Structure formats: structure tokens, C-alpha cells
Amino acid sequence: MFGSIHATMFETISIWGVFFIALLGLGYAFLLKTQIMKHDKGTPRMQEVWGAIRQGADAYLGRQLKSILPLILALTAVLFFSVYVIPPSEEALSRFSQFAPDKVRLLVGLGRAAAFVMGAFFSLIVGQFGMRMAVEGNVRVASASRRSFGEALKIAYRTGTITGMLTDGLGLLGGTTIFIIFGIASPDVLLGFGFGGTLLALFMRVGGGIFTKAADVGADLVGKVEKNIPEDDPRNAAVIADLVGDNVGDCAGMAADIFESYEVTIVSGLILGLALVGLTGEIKWILFPLLVRGIGVLSSIIGTYLVRGGKEGKNNDAFASINRGFFASAGISMVAFLFLAHFYMHEWRAFFSVGVGILLAIVIDEITKYFTHTQHPPVKEIAHSSRTGSATLILRGLAIGFESSAWQFIVIAITILAAIVIYWGQPVVYVLYGVAMTGIGMLTLTGNNVAMDSFGPIADNANGIGEMAQLEPKARQIMADLDAVGNTTKAITKGVAIGSAVIAAVSLFGSFLTDVTKVQAQMNIPENLRLLATGIRVSQPIVFIGLLIGAALPCLFSSLTINSVARAAGLIVDEVRRQFHIPGLMEGRVKPDYKKAVDICTVAAQKELIGLALIAILSPILIGMVLEVEALGGFLAGVIISGQLLAVFMATAGGAWDNAKKTIEDGLLGGKGSDAHRASVVGDTVGDPLKDTAGPALNPMIKVINLVSLLAAPILIHLHRANVGVIFGMVACILLIFGAILYSKHGALTFRRPGERVGF
Predict the structure, then answer these.
(1) Helix, strand and coil percent figures for the chain, each rounded to 5
(2) Half-sphere exposure of residue 297: CA atoms within 13 angstroms, side-chain side
(3) Measured between alpha carbons, how far is 150 from 317 in angstroms, rounded to an integer?
(4) Got the DSSP string for 521-566?
(5) By the 8 A CB rule, do 238 and 219 touch?
(6) Residue 193 lies in a domain
(7) CA–CA separation, 170 vs 197, rounded Å?
């Protein structure tokens, strides 16, 4: 029995089994950490470069924590008091039937606030600990490359797997623990857990993206284009900041991003599962997503451990080895889901739903790979278009980005259609549950996906360390090969992250409909007028207004993040140019001031966080107060559609430009230093803030808005717009949102003139 849910012996054993599987996933992460730390860190020069990267990463993470802590504390209090605005849910009263309603409010409020802190803390652990391990792994990969390809690959991938298993283990541990304690009342508390993880992911995505791309763009524009020196040349003052940025953006940011998708799909799955429990009286609808996630952790442990390189000259295809591990995990999961559906669910619809999710992840992998891998026509076409200059190269990349977005949108539409077909003839809540299970299935292989993503910056950093430490050509070639594979794995996991964000958002959208309907039932609103019956009627002008504003918000958000990168990159360009005029620096007699560039990026990234977070948090509250809840539903639909299109477009175009540059650097069209190469660097520079800042930042933004809407909707239904307090709230939200926009556009950074100090 789990909080007023009567479970069979099998179900009781299973849920505790899932709890211990979560602990097993964490134990596997720490086992890999022990193995990684036993490898050597190479020469003193390698360790010197590595030390600078580690110090920069630590400084960034410390400053970021100080920036976001006040907002976390404030929101913890808000979430606690949010339960006092409306009556307790029927599920909460049933779970804590031995207590008076006021005591139930207190318990749910404490649970929601504690879950919010736990979600934020877990997301922070995934991002920070995973990134620190990536920093520990990169120098060890560089050292291993002097011995063999297989050893370097194994260290790089298993270091990334640590982050993947932390994501798996902590996400499952949090959701299962809340379910064991709160039972049928767990959705009320899980909203706090999901919101905490999502908000931290937004901070880490935006901050890490601004940091990494400001450094990358500044380093490339001056180093490659103006001075015609290699990418990781030690004379470039921004090179350490660039290497630090790979970690804070692609390790900490992406890990937190996928972690919150992992959380959110559990939240939506349990909310919709609870609705089905009310219809059928069977608790299998709640337990099934947790059991699926437990299977996913086990399959990821097996699949990730299978990834390794062959002996010298044999099986040295890193991408093939990583794919083997991924498909092994997928195969194990599918077989286990089949048995679970047949012997526990006693129906095949659940199996087909999670199976479609795994297939969706594979299809998105393949689409992203086609448009971003160096071996496929799109990247080759972009590279060849560089013969006529950077303008034609950029145009070709834009076209490919738009095409990729269209195909991924169609695939997601087919996925939702599959949920409709699977639950054909059933009430709409079954279809929404099927969509949620698709998201659960899609993120079953989270351990593999995060490992693939973290592999990219680890290999990239190792390559940078190798170049700065001037390792022998054989080692450099091994690291260059791993780096090229890492670019593709990063692009693929960005596609999965975006796809999972959309599926998770659609699942939350379904949860929004069911939760609002539940509150309307408590208010005795006739059934035919409740939101689940009427739907979101875009034919209503006020709802259509909400849809339009929602579609506009991702455009505004992207504009602000790209603008932030441009300002910060301008400061880096200015600083690198200044340092190149230091006597003896170009000759190698004087070392550049790496710390200065790191400091510029760190301060620039933190300046943007709170303003962008306020826009995401307050905009759905404002829409709900002004236009009411049905229009808020239209607003959510607009955010999801516009956000997905923009995110895929930016991630794909940026990844394709990056790999086109890599192709030319490998010798195509004259190689490094040629006119084609200079054109490709410009294209890559344009794509950097798209693929690593603006595009990925839309994922957590979409889910923050959805979760805030879920939390606020039950309160908004009870509000009267003529109330003085509501009018004051509207005015306060408007002022804060426009203040955040103006600050983000004009108040964060100022450029300096030559000879002046840098000002922020």
C-alpha cells in the first residue's frame, strides 16, 4: 500500500525494486568515477592546461550558484503558500484522511516546497558533478591517446556515462520516493519536483550557452580569421575560456536539460495515470511509467558498458561502437517492455506507446545525423558552397535548418497520431496518457543519450589540451577523430533533447487540461463546459490571442539570448585583440592572460539569468490573469509549436555549419587557411549561438512555462479580474517582464573603447 493505493504483492515488490534500481544507477556512476580517476593525467604541460580549465569551470559554477540561490529561496516559499489559495485535492484528502483539511494543506505545501528544492538540487548535482567529472576525464583522454585509440574512447565515453547515470538515477529516485510517500497525492508534490529541475536547467542552459559561445565566437573571429592561427593555439587569450565553455554548456547545461525532461515526463505520466485510475480503479496506470524507467536504467547500464574501441587498427570506428551500445540498450528495453505489458498490464497498448517513444528517439537520431554528419549530403553541400563565399554558405545552412525542422515536426506529428491510433475509441485522457508514455519511452535510454552528449566536450577538450601541450601527431590524430565523432553525437543528442522537450510539453499540456477540469468539477461547473470537454477553442478570438502571444515568446527569448552572446563575444574579441598587441605574445615568449577572458564570459553569462527566468515564469501567469485559463491553454500551444520549430532549425543549422567547417579543415577545398575555410569559420561563428545557446535554451523554457501554468491554473480559475489584488498582480507582472526585456537588451554589458577598462 502506497498512500491510500492498494497494491498487490507484485506491485509492492516492483516499486521498491525501482527504488533500488535508481540507487544501482547511482552506484554504477560512482563505480565509473573510481575507474576514471585511476588513469594518469599525462605530462606536466597537459596538467597545466587542464588546471586552467578546471579553475575556470569551478569559478563559473560558484558564481552561477550565488546568482540563482535567492530566486530559488523565494520560489520555495511561493510554492509552499500556493496550496493555501485553493482547497486540497480529493486525492490529498484521501491520502491523509486521518488529518483535518488545514493539516493536509500544510503537508502538501511542505511536500511541494521540499520536492522543488530536491528537484533543483538534483538538477544541480547532475550538471555540476557531471561537468566536474568531464573536466577530470578530458586530460585523461588526452593522455590515453598517446597509448591507444581504444583506451581513449573508453575513458571519454565512460566519463560521459557518469553524467548519464546520475541523470537516470536521480530522476528515478526523486519520482519514486515522492510516490512511495504521497501515493495518489503525489502529482500535487511532483509538480514542485519537476519545476525545480526545469528551472535549474533553464539557468544552466542559458548561462552555459552564453559563456561557451561568447568564448568560442571571440576566439574564432580573432584567432582563425584575423590571425590565421589554429583553433586551440595557446597564444589566443580566449582558448581556455573556450575549453571551459564546452564543459559548462555541453556537459552541465545539456545534462540538466535532459534531466528535467526526464522529470517532467514522469510528472505528466503520473498525473494522467491518476486520471485513468479514477476511470478504471486500476493502479497499473501509475506504476507502469515507473517500471519502464527502472528497466531503462538497467538497459543503459548494460549498453553503456559495451562501448569500447578495438585494438590498434581494428574496429576503430568510435561512432559505430557508441551506436552498438545504444541499440543494445534499446533492444533490451523493448524485450523487457513486451514482457511487462503482457504479464502486468495485460494489454499491448502500453507496449506500443513506449515502443513508439524508442522508435521516435531513433528516428530523430537518424534525421539529425543525416543533416549534420560529415558523411551525408547536407554538410557536404554547405562545405562546397563555401567556394563562393560566406554568404552562400550561410544561405545553404539556413535552408538545411528549415528543412530539418519540417521533417522533425512531421515525425512528432506522426508520433502523436500513433497515440491516437493505439487508443482509438477511448476517451481523450487515454490518448494523452499514450503521448506521455511515448515521452517515457523516448527517454528510456537517457543514460546512453547523456553519455553521447558529454562524450563530445570531453573529446573536444582532450583535443585542445593535446594541441596546447604539443603532443605527438599520432595522439593528435586519435583525439581529432574522437572530436569529430563528438560533434555528431552532440548534434544528435540536441535533436533528442528538443524532441523530448516537445513530447514532454505535449504531455504537460494534457495534464493541464485534466487538472483544470478537475478544479472545475470541484467548482460545480457543468461537465459539458469543462476544459477537457470543450478543448482549447482557437476559434474564440481571446484564445487565438493567447496562441499568437505564445508563438511570439520563443522568438523574443531567442533574440535576447543571441543578443547576449553577441555582446559578450564583442568583449572577448576586444580583449583578445588587445592581448595580441602585447610584445612577445605572438612569438610565444609571453603567455596571454587566460583568466581575463574567463572572467568576462563568467560575468556576462550570470548577468542574463534572472531576467530571462522572470520572463518564462511570469508570462503564463500574466496571460492567465488577463485572458483566463482557456486562453492560457492557447498560449501553451503557441509556445510548444513555435519553440519546437525554432529550436530544431537553430540546432541543425548550427551543427551543419560546424561540421562543414570541420570537413574543410580535414583537407577539403584547400584545408585550413584557404578562402573556403575562412568562409566556413564565419558560418560556424553565426551558427554557434544558434546551436549551443538560443536553440537549446528553448527546451527548458517551454517546460518552465508549462509547469508554471500547471501550478498556477487551479489558482487562476478562482480569480476575478476586477479584484484589486489581481489588477495589482497584472501590473506587477507587466512591469517585471518589460523590465527584464529592457535589461536583457541594454543593461547587461557595455563595450569598451581601446584603452578603457572593461565595464559590466
Answers:
(1) 85, 0, 15
(2) 30
(3) 10
(4) HHTT--GGGSHHHH---TTSHHHHHHHHHHHHHHHHHHHHHHHHHH
(5) yes
(6) yes
(7) 11
CB 422 within 8 A of CB 353: yes
Q: Does residue 161 sit within a domain?
A: yes
Cα–Cα distances in angstroms (integers) from residue 555 to residues 139, 522, 709, in the given order: 39, 37, 20
For the chain, the domain total comes to 1
pLDDT tens for 506-550 read 888 888 888 888 888 878 888 888 888 888 888 899 999 999 999
Tell me which residue of 178, 451, 193 sits closest to 301, measured CA to CA: 451
Q: Which three cell numbers stand for residue 428?
A: 481523450
Structural domain boundaries enclosing 198: 9-539
Determine the distance from the C-alpha atom of residue 220 to the mean position of all C-alpha atoms in its chain, rounded to a whole number. 26
HEC string of 68-108? HHHHHHHHHHHHHHHCCCCCCCHHHHHHCCCCCHHHHHHHH
pTM for the structure as a whole: 0.86
Instruction: Identify how many contiguous H helices and E strands the chain contains and give both numbers.
Output: 23, 0
C-alpha 79/C-alpha 112 separation (Å) is: 7
DSSP assignment string, 427-442: -HHHHHHHHHHHHHHH
Any domain includes 695: no
pLDDT of residue 520: 82
> Looking at this protein, which amino acid is placed at residue 502?
V
The answer to whether residue 758 is domain-embedded is: no
pLDDT per residue as tens digits for the range 271-292:
888 888 888 888 899 899 999 9
User: Residue 139: which of 119, 155, 127, 120 has the closest Cα?
Assistant: 155
